[in-house]
């Protein structure tokens, strides 16, 4: 059974797509030496851009934190786990050959980060082209 595989996007393409689409301003050093804050912010922006964060994430976190005895102690962990869950689900649905783990958020690795960004951006490009074609052809009817 053959399986569709999307091309690995080179770092320069990842940077160009993110910058030109105004998802985020990214420099090569951001991908060569990714840090948790940068990666979390970038994944959040990608999810928002792909409409995968339909509800206000702050509202969800607040509702979850209300259930805890000392909510201030858990604020960051709830936010990280929410983001982790969404990204893991997205990457799995795109059939990425690598599994997204919590370590990919809290101790990001250059190669794995580029793999996941490439996977998500390939989907983004496919979604954009499909959307454009639909509107282009529907304008004739």
From TrEMBL:
<dbReference type="GO" id="GO:0051301">
    <property type="term" value="P:cell division"/>
</dbReference>
<dbReference type="Pfam" id="PF03800">
    <property type="entry name" value="Nuf2"/>
</dbReference>
<keyword id="KW-0498">Mitosis</keyword>
<feature type="domain" description="Kinetochore protein Nuf2 N-terminal">
    <location>
        <begin position="3"/>
        <end position="126"/>
    </location>
</feature>
<keyword id="KW-0132">Cell division</keyword>
<keyword id="KW-0131">Cell cycle</keyword>
<dbReference type="GO" id="GO:0031262">
    <property type="term" value="C:Ndc80 complex"/>
</dbReference>
<dbReference type="InterPro" id="IPR038275">
    <property type="entry name" value="Nuf2_N_sf"/>
</dbReference>
<keyword id="KW-0158">Chromosome</keyword>
<dbReference type="InterPro" id="IPR005549">
    <property type="entry name" value="Kinetochore_Nuf2_N"/>
</dbReference>
<keyword id="KW-0175">Coiled coil</keyword>
<keyword id="KW-0137">Centromere</keyword>
<comment type="similarity">
    <text>Belongs to the NUF2 family.</text>
</comment>
<protein>
    <recommendedName>
        <fullName>Kinetochore protein Nuf2 N-terminal domain-containing protein</fullName>
    </recommendedName>
</protein>
